[in-house]
Amino acid sequence: MGRLDSKVVVILGASDETSMGAASARRFAKEGAKLILAARRLDKLEPIAKSIGAVAVKCDIKSEEDIAALAERAVKTYGRLDAAINFAGLNSSAPILEVTRQALMEACEVHFVGATLFIKHMAARMTAGGSLITISSLTALVAPAGLAAYAGSKRGADHMVRIAASELGERGIRVNSLAPGFTRSAMTEGYFAIPTLEGAFLREIPLKRLSTVEDIANAALWLVSDESRSTTGQIIDVTAGQSLRRTPTGQEMMS
After folding, report:
1. Does the pLDDT at position 1 exceed 80?
2. What is the third-level CATH fold of 8-187+210-246?
3. DSSP 8-state assignment for residue 109
4. pTM score > 0.85 for this model?
């Protein structure tokens, strides 16, 4: 038997083969989950879903209507909803003296408002308990320069997760967040063109390795499984220990 046999799981943000969402979907499929994969780009999502026998659904994290319809689709397809993970995110960087209102609002719309509405609508469709996960970041655990919009919105979502866990616990619904370290994925691939970047990060990581999308998938698997049935309201650190130190400066990354 698989660790997720017959569990119905929604994964939002799985439209790239190298993404955390796609890695989690592949891992969950091997453990017997029934999967609904969602993303804005159906053309990229459908081949991934087809390869693991999942259902593909178009969903934009910025649309509450899309999120509600995604939860409804899971229930209509499989009769219930047991778990849901939100991997949707965007990059945003600028120092405080240069950050724009637009950048702040866009980051909050995706990372805070979207994450909150995702939990709202997924929880509403869970009738027999369940597990909800959203994605935080190493940057929400430390204080990296230039990432007020990105890290600030992630940190706000982390506190929302704690509130949601408190409110939803009596319904048997667990709510947690995963905080990956700097991980090679669809979202970060471009940064690896900087030859000195990886070394700069490794110097600040006690375990001397970057986390992988498979590491994130394994952590998500544990949170979705019944093995974590007493864990809720937590920000699970998957940074290989970097949160104990700091992120490298821009100058250190480039030299």
Report:
1. no
2. Rossmann fold (3.40.50)
3. I
4. yes
